[in-house]
Amino acid sequence: xxxxxxxxxxxxxxxxxVLIGQTVDFWVQVEAHPDEGTAVQEARLxxxxxxxxxxxxxxxxxxxxxxxxxxxxxxxxxxxxxRSTGAIPIDSFLSRGSNYQDKIxxxxxxxxxxxxxxxKVEDVIVSETGWGSExxxxxxxxxx
Length: 144
Description:
- Helices cover 49% and strands 21% of the residues.
- The chain contains 5 helices and 5 strands, in the order αβαββαββαα.
- A 5-stranded antiparallel β-sheet has the order 4-1-3-2-5.
């Protein structure tokens, strides 16, 4: 009797923790490339007309371009819609993303905006002073 009591409580606490750990994310996997640069370039091209485009390292030197994540129903719908309009290849498929490792594109938006801001400041310095990039690369500070 005592044994059944412990088994009951063990199952009661184990099942929800297993269910919580499961993900409901799905991606529409569009392409895979053996070259990171090509994968990033293609992801950028797709992102011009499709939102939520990502690129991930998937192991063994391969990189996947995917759209998502979505719930299963929305992922199915997006897959059908994008295939039927010719926006993605006909052999695109749904993925659970279990082999997606490091995200290679897009990178952190905050870091990208900082890079863009620094680039704009450098452009202003060059245009206002006539100094080339050698001045900014040495970290010289200008005061106006």
